[in-house]
Automatic annotation (TrEMBL):
Cofactor: FAD; [4Fe-4S] cluster
Record's protein name: CoB--CoM heterodisulfide reductase iron-sulfur subunit A
Domain 4Fe-4S ferredoxin-type, first and last residues per copy: 231-261, 278-307, 564-590, 593-621
Entries under PROSITE patterns matching the protein: 4FE4S_FER_1, 4FE4S_FER_2
């Protein structure tokens, strides 16, 4: 095996901390390395050319790139080496930026970079060429969420000739935009611009709209997702003409959700007059079953015996556009929402000011129906707050400016105050919009109110004007709160799709800068406020971007996917069935007494860790390759305690990278080995790690319930807990093995976990006393434990 090692400076990002010459010289001394070089930016075209030239000049079989995280440019380097004539899977990346130069100081970082290169070379020696897997792509797409994002994405894709299934949980599509009165900064009527799009989506021959429906189950993989949709019983059939006679006679009245509870609706209802479809729904929770609606329905559309229906569809891609909700401002009791009738939320204000809303567009106090003469708007209610949500909700400043102008337009005499922390007006025409509000006589007070109380029918707002440095008290007739924008409550769906949440609970993208509309799961895309708080222009732009990424994928009709999947070495397999039993994806079957792997394998590696004869292996993550990394992780003069961490690709490895991005320092004696899923970690790897010099081992995966491979992390948990029990039984301290869950956004947690673990290990006696026990335990695990017991490990 002829290996080339290429060390990247990444400008000063790596070279500013790591002694590149020392790393290059060390790499050249390693077995099988025939050339070691450095470059300022390996990802630049000249850097890639350098690699390609060296492959030809030195007749290389495999390449090690020591640079940024493999999550960043692994695909790029695979392409580079493929173009230079070697198999793209003959590549290993040593992460000497996110997990080295960005988290350690000079000197120690150089030592760690050398170790990471040594581990990568050890793995590269065992790399094998792999063939890409070709799969057919179903040219159909599932769009989840029928707000403006979902509607826009559906229309874009249908126009390009793809079949679209648009699933919305409410009885009508439209989302929050349908509830808005006017839209900043142009002040168009919201439903006037959204309504035609809703109708267009409904009428489009290639868009199948499922309202009052939810996604029940998703299986499969990019190009071939199988989806079950639950169409909830509306108790009103498609024969409904939307005439509304039923609702006029219905005796039941309940708060109307669309009107934010400011008006009532009947138990048989349409959410709003422009609803699409214009089809009534019976709210089964409140219906008395009197049958009056059925008696008067001339279309005979009422069906009290209707049942939920499960519809099964096959799609190639999925777009998630499930939008947002508002933070529950009752939790911030100092503002009195829920106690004082005239303290309302911004979305309630939208309905109040809307000509089709509960007051016909008249801005009145809810307590006495009188026109308010002095109105306060309070910004950042729950946003930018240590007590609630730390992030900025992005759109509140702008919609509040819109609200103030709407008041001034309707009644210029009204005194309007905005209590703000900073005014954030970033967008085309937004700054001008702000100045327009100022010029119309709106008062701006910099400071977050501390308390609101009611006295003599007036609301008294206690706030500090931070520009004047003075605590003040103001009197108002009405107060409008701008609650934080939070992601729609969709944990079940998120887990079904295996999309991680970011630290604020929004859906996480594959790469914040380079793949902002793709989920980390191939074939799944994200649009609108499901991703982060956004205004309508950005939502629409992101929806079109997601649609175009999905279309680009489906247009190929065939897709080549990475062969990082399971394969069987037939000579070693004796058909014990354990791999089949452990597989969540039904991707393994038996033929002629041997296992074989089907194309829907996801490559999690749970089967390989369970296989008692090492017959099951994972491309790019074979036992031999991982064990080679393990045995090269430590030098005997490395500082103690030494820690080896097995990190799953999607969450905990990304979490370690996030620690790097945030430049969080943690002890240098922690080295990571990337696996696709924590379920890939064979207990043998852990034991070998101890025998190779580790004082402690970390196995980290996605949070329980968030695994990208359904229950992979539960399998890891079960195995590692058994292993800990075995360690105790053999006289090895079980505290040396740490099992933990770290998400892709939890850089801080990663740094803390490893720091604390190193401290904990320091408090334990030297591992030397336990080595003999470890050797005995290793022999037991390797040779004597029965097949079944081995599986439960
Ligand atoms: P949403 O509108 O929230 O739509 C998401 C849809 O997904 C909903 O219909 C929901 O029912 C559905 N859904 C959720 N979960 C599921 C599920 N599991 N299965 C199926 N369906 C599901 N922006 C502007 O540009 N100009 C303005 O003037 C403006 N004013 C605003 C005023 C207020 C008070 C607020 C709060 C926001 C305002 N915005 C404004 C922002 C605007 O509302 C958003 O940009 C826009 O609505 C985002 O659209 P969306 O499709 O991403 O999300």
């Amino acid at each position: 095996m002829r290996i080339g090692v290429f060390v990247c400076h990444c400008g000063r990002n790596i070279a500013g901390v790591v002694d590149i010459d020392e790393v290059v010289s060390y790499a050249s001394s390693l077995d099988n390395v025939v050339i070691a070089k450095d470059d300022r930016y390996l990802c630049s075209s000249s850097g890639q050319q350098e690699v390609a030239n060296a492959i030809k000049e030195y007749n290389l079989d495999a390449v090690v790139i020591a640079a940024c995280s493999p999550r960043m440019h692994e695909q790029l380097f695979r392409k580079t080496i493929e173009e230079a004539g070697i198999n793209p899977y003959m590549l290993e990346v040593a992460n000497i930026r996110e997990q080295c130069s960005w988290v350690h100081t000079a000197g120690e970082a150089t030592q760690k970079a050398k170790a990471l290169v040594r581990m990568a070379v050890a793995k590269a020696k065992h790399l094998k060429p792999l063939e890409k897997i070709q799969i057919e792509i179903t040219p159909k797409v599932l769009v989840i969420g029928g707000g403006v994002a979902g509607i826009q994405a559906s229309l874009d894709l249908a126009e390009q000739g793809f079949e679209v299934y648009l699933v919305e949980k409410q009885p009508s599509i439209g989302g929050h935009m349908a509830m808005l009165d006017k839209t900043f900064p142009t002040m168009d009527c919201s439903i006037c611009i959204l309504g035609p799009k809703m109708v267009e989506a409904w009428r489009h021959e290639r868009i199948h709209v499922f309202t009052y429906s939810e996604v029940e189950e998703v299986s499969g993989y990019v190009g071939n997702f199988k989806v079950k949709i639950r169409k909830k019983a509306r108790f009103v059939t498609d024969a409904c003409t939307g005439c509304g006679v039923c609702a006029t006679l219905c005796p039941v009245e309940v708060p109307n959700e669309f009107e934010m509870g400011l008006a009532n609706r009947k138990a048989i209802y349409i959410p709003f007059p422009q609803a699409v479809p214009l089809q009534y729904t019976i709210d089964a929770e409140h219906c008395l079953g009197c049958g009056m609606c059925s008696d008067v329905c001339s279309a005979s559309a009422i069906d009290f015996f209707q049942q939920d229906k499960i519809v099964e569809i096959d799609v190639g891609t999925i777009i998630v556009a499930t939008g947002y909700e508002l933070y529950d401002v009752k939790k911030l009791s100092e503002y009195g929402y829920g106690r004082f009738k005239d303290v309302i939320t911004s979305l309630e204000f939208e309905r109040l000011v809307n000509a089709a809303g509960p007051t016909g567009g008249k801005i009145i106090r809810l307590s006495d129906g009188k026109e308010p003469k002095r109105i306060a708007f309070i910004q950042c209610v729950g946003s930018r707050s240590e007590r609630a949500k730390k992030y900025c909700s992005g759109i509140c400043c702008m919609y509040t400016l819109k609200h103030t102008m709407q008041i001034k337009e309707k009644n210029p005499e009204t005194e309007v105050y905005v209590f703000y922390m900073d005014i954030r007006a970033v967008g085309k025409g937004y700054e001008e919009f702000y100045w327009k509000a100022r010029d119309s006589g709106v008062n701006f007070v910099r400071g977050r109110p501390a308390r609101i109380y009611e006295e003599d029918g007036k609301l008294r707002v206690v706030a500090e004007d931070t520009l004047l440095g003075k605590p003040l008290e103001y009197e108002f007739d009405m107060v409008v709160l701008a609650p934080a924008i939070i992601p729609a409550e969709n944990d079940k769906l998120r887990q079904m799709l295996a999309i991680p949440a970011d630290k604020d609970g929004f859906l996480m993208e594959a790469h914040a800068k380079l793949r902002p509309v793709e989920a980390p799961i191939s074939g799944i895309f994200i649009a609108g406020c499901a991703h982060s708080p956004k205004d309508i222009p950005s939502t629409v732009a992101q929806a079109s971007a997601a649609a175009s990424r999905a279309a680009a994928l489906m247009a190929k009709r065939k897709l080549e996917i990475d062969p990082i999947t399971a394969y069987v070495i037939p000579e070693l397999c004796f058909g014990c069935n354990l791999c089949k039993e452990v597989c969540d994806f039904n991707a393994i079957d038996m033929a002629w007494g041997k296992a074989y792997v089907k194309p829907n394998c996801t490559g999690c590696g749970a089967c390989a860790a369970a296989c008692p004869t090492n017959a099951m292996q994972i491309g790019c993550f074979t036992d031999v390759q991982i064990l080679a990394q393990v045995s090269e992780a430590f030098d005997f003069d490395d500082e103690k305690p030494r820690v080896l961490a097995f990190l799953c690709n999607w969450c905990s490895y990304a979490g370690a990278d996030a620690a790097g991005l945030a430049r969080l320092k943690y002890p240098v004696n922690v080295k990571a080995i990337r696996v696709m899923c924590s379920a890939r970690v064979d207990p043998v790897f852990v034991i070998k790690a101890f025998l190779s010099g580790a004082d402690g081992v970390i196995v980290a995966g996605c949070h329980l319930g968030d695994c990208h491979y359904m229950t992979g992390n539960y399998k890891a948990k079960r195995r590692m807990e058994k292993l800990q029990a075995l360690m105790e039984q053999f006289g090895v301290r079980k505290e040396r093995l740490l099992l933990t869950w770290i998400s892709a956004s939890e850089g801080e947690k990663f740094a803390k976990v490893v720091t604390d673990f190193v401290e904990k290990l320091k408090s334990l006696p030297d591992i030397d006393d336990e080595i003999r026990n470890l050797v005995r335990m290793s022999q037991e695990v390797e040779n004597e434990v029965s097949l079944k017991e081995r599986n439960s490990l």
